[in-house]
Amino acid sequence: MIAATITALFSVIAIATAITLIDCWMRAHSAYASLRRQSALVKAGFVPQVEAQIVRIRPSAPRAAAATRPYARRLPRRQFVQELGAA
What is the reported pTM? Predict the structure, then answer.
């Protein structure tokens, strides 16, 4: 009974390993074909365009950091108007 269980376990592991290896090979083959196409386009004189979602001019500034500095805080509207009227 133990031998049959161990054999079944090894069989399942072997099948899972084979499926994983085939999946990795298919993904690598697809990536290699894509790189070959891009290489051929570059050799032909075309410049590949980067996708818009990848291009970022500068990183976005964290908004919470500016609000925690005392000099960056604004006065409430009412208080600001009263100070202008008193001046």
Answer: 0.48
- Residues 6 or more apart whose CB falls under 8 angstroms from that of 72 comprise 66
Q: Which domain holds residue 44?
A: 2-86
The structure tokens listed for 60 are 């976005």
Cα torsion through 25, 26, 28, 30, rounded to 10:
160
C-alpha–C-alpha distance, residues 71 and 67, integer Å: 9
CA 19 to chain CA centroid, Å, is 26
pLDDT tens by residue, 37-74: 989 998 998 887 767 666 666 666 666 555 555 555 55
Report the length, in residues, of the chain.
Answer: 87
**Half-sphere CA count of 61, side-chain side, radius 13 A:** 5
Instruction: Take residue 35 and report the two structure tokens written for it.
Output: 């790189």
> What total number of domains does the chain contain?
1
